[in-house]
Amino acid sequence: MMRKVMVTLAIIGFAFALLPLAFRAGVQAEPGALATEYLETAPRELGAANVVTAIVVSYRGFDTLGEVAVLFVATAGVGAMLTRKRLGPAAVGRRKPATEVLRTATGLLTGLIVMFGAYIFMHGHLTPGGGFQGGVVIATAVLLNVLAAPESHLAHGVMTAVEALSGAAYVAIGLLGAFLAWGFLDPRVMPTGSIGSLVSAGTIPLIYSAIGLKVGAELSGIIEALKGDRP
After folding, report:
1. pTM assigned to the model
2. Most CB atoms closer than 10 Å: which of 154, 159, 202, 231?
3. Tens-digit pLDDT profile for residues 78-108
4. Domains in the chain, number
5. 162: domain range?
6. Does residue 231 belong to any structural domain of this protein?
């Protein structure tokens, strides 16, 4: 009884704390000073049609590096906890085989899903999307295959290599920006090109490609660990 009372009081406290934010929420008539600076400066300086991309992987690139590191720690934690010893092989043996519809759909859709994920992070400097979104889409293809063939396993060596190389590429591109341009992850190491074209925004497409591959590999590792039969 006391636990329910405490939970109820905690919920009420959070509601009162967030209530002022709800009343102040809304769409501003015009961007603020900082937003206006980004909107005017980012396309001209970095050649990125998607200003959000320029902010995420350039102006606040250190934050993005921290987000990728947090995801890596989460992957390692899930892999350490959800092992065959923890869940037990008996639970694995009780799995039902996938239906013919699921197996057929998986064979038809896997390649399309992976290509769509790659499209998202390769065009993140032009359209809404980016490395995290594209990596999640690629991980859904892995999830679909896990549902269609529960007895299958990922090639851990390949996934580890993709994760390590993409992370190293992200840091290397960042250091090139620090030494050859104006700061860590500065995309002007390469020509910014014409805004709106695929080959533009300097190294931003490469940065987002590295993030997409790393996020996809890490989330795929989590999905594999959740099966509970990792050797």
Report:
1. 0.80
2. 202
3. 777 765 555 555 555 556 777 889 999 999 9
4. 1
5. 2-226
6. no
